[in-house]
Design a protein that fits this description.
heterodimer; A: mainly alpha; Helix Hairpins; B: about 500 residues; mainly alpha; two-stranded antiparallel sheet; 2 strands; transmembrane helix (chain B); membrane (chain B); ND/Mrp_TM (chain B); NADH_UbQ_OxRdtase (chain B)
Chain lengths: ~120, ~500
Amino acid sequence: MELLYSSCVGLLVACGVFLILRARTFPVVLGLTMLSYAVNLFLFASGRLTMNKAAVLGYSDGYADPLPQALVLTAIVIGFAMTAFVVILAIRGRADLGNDHVNGIEVNTATRNSGSQRKEQGKA
Amino acid sequence: MMQHLTSLPVLLPMLAAIFMLMPPCGKNLRARRIVSVGMGAITTVASIILLLMTREHGTSVYAIGNWSAPFGIVLIADPLSALLVTLTSFLGLVCGLYSCAGDDERGSFFHPLLHFLVLGVNGAFLTGDAFNLFVFFEVLLIASYSLLMHGGDKRNTRAALQYVILNLVGSSVFLIALGILYGTLGTLNMADMAQKVTLLQGDDVYLAKIGGLLLLVVFALKGALLPLHLWLPNTYSTAMPVVAALFAIMTKVGVYSMMRVYTLIFGEEAGELSHMAQNWLWWLAIATIVMGAIGVLASQDLRKMVANLVVVSVGTLVALVAVQTVQSSAAAIYYLVHSTLVSAALFLLADLIARQRGKVADRITAGRPVSQPLLLGGAFLVAAVAVIGMPPLSGFVGKVWILRSTLDTPYGNWFWLVYLVASLAILVSVSKAGSTVFWHQTGKGDNEQERAHPAQVCAVMLLVLCTPLMVIFAGPLSEYALLAAQELHDFTGLLQDVLGGVH
């Protein structure tokens, strides 16, 4: 279980970092979401992985650490709020800056050229 | 009542912000302004009372909901956090006052957001629980995101987008660090962590080290330490000046958290982990000063220059954190108060100058004269002398203290060299900026131009006058800074207070 769990977290982080480095707002938002999922799973594991144990005393033989569950709950709530904010900001950025690059500047001139060519072709 | 005083700097801004969203002042800007400034003043008074109380009776620990530590969350008001809370509340009051001149009309909810920001910063200074530190960080960050967008344009959107994404990544790293530390230490109460860290064995030591260094990354990001400082000049110079002035305290939250974590948890008694961040911090701090000084020299407008001055002050503070002696921490505390007030004053002054110079705005070139040269010029002179660190004002006291406390340290000679050269660079560029703006004039200023609103003048004067006051009352202030530094380094009393009989 440990191996599955940790590789799951690792994979999520890797995907998240990759998407954030894409530097386009939509992939970045997706990447941030994945990163926060990975972080939530990781926090959950910091209380040790146990099977069939309640977080309340007296309901099972042992008990699972309740604190990480509380922490994850808080982190999820905060993560949702922040993701919502960054989505709105990304939409506004798209409207204000005319493209979805986080620097607000189209770096790849090749795509712009091909785009304008396509437009010209469309006109023709 | 008195034992609840510790929670007031957190509760009052929250109540103020919520009240301002409610019907009586929901749409009414006038009522909102009155409530904002009034509640800001009340928060400041409460913080000052807290400050005086901690000076009289020492550290007070407030267990929220009477749940005792390490299971409950505690607020700790020791001399250092009480001082910083007072500073934040005062800054919030001044910025609220300044914005009454019309800045708060340029978007909705300026005043509630300002109070939420004060709530977050005060909470981060007061809390004694690492996870709660994260929560208060998020509170202050989300308020700062919205304030950054307040009355903004295109450049602003871009800077805000980068700032938000960077901080979200920072928050994830913060949570990972907390997860690792909780997994190895089994607690998130900072005092309890300080005790548990001495008992670590085997691989747990390395895990805790990873956690501690990840925390360093987060605090370096918030504090704008070298490799992670690039967001700051852009963000601060595109935000509205009154917001930027308010943000002057936010980099200090990162520095404060470094002070707390690396002297309390990973301090002297942490066995293998003691002083683990020190070597890193030294070089990063020195490099930050260099980059900040280059930025100051290269700035083309006043706001960018002040933003780079903030970077320099962060570098200085972090270098002092790395020294980790009582003297250096005391110097850092004095310098922290001074630099926050002065950079806030300079941001506001840059705004006033920009408004009165028409199209040239705050660019450092010849332009139309300002319409109130004596008032603005005088205030700018005082603030500039303070920020450079020239003799009569508080910057000089801070500078001498900083240099003395770093004299015998391992990298002290490097620090002296870099710091003094950086001061020279700041002297050159700030005096050039001042003389260009006030003396190189083209065309005539006409007296019909916009003159500064009384609220703005009042706010700027409040900030500028703090500098001479910090020199006149240098005696009691430095005593208080020393007391705070001693409490910071000698925390056995704190452990007793927080944990009581629990072990």
